[in-house]
Model the fold of this input.
Amino acid sequence: MSDRTIRTVPLTAEAFAPFGDVLEVTGAPDRLINQDLCGRYHDRARLDFGTDGRAGISLFDAVPRALPYTLDLVERHPEGSQAFLPMTEAPFLVIVAPDAGGVPGTPRAFLTAPGQGVNYHRGTWHGVLTPLSAPGLFAVVDRIGTTPNLEEHWFATPWTVVT
Done:
């Protein structure tokens, strides 16, 4: 394994905390609603749309990728958070990187478990949407606004993501 290889690890709230929120049903619900037939897991993500943005829900249909995966591009959204909610039970690849003076540092890779989604905090470097099987359907909650909200970084030397 080269020094440009990243091993995936399971997605956990603790490991992902510096980058965002893991969206999943764990433990007992915060409350029961709908005649006690529905558990509400309340306020599980820190959504942030800046001062001139608003929340929007979009649907993404991404082409599945495979491991090993070549990571040559990450992006971030300086004006708002971005949540990815899978519309299937299939796992997907989550790649993040700490900020290192305005550029991404060493990336980390996570594999989701069925039923997990993620919310990237504002300004978090992350890989593109990477489902590992079809269909790659996701509901995405992110900022809708008139100011630019996308920065891309292309790695001069790509990384390889493996299990």
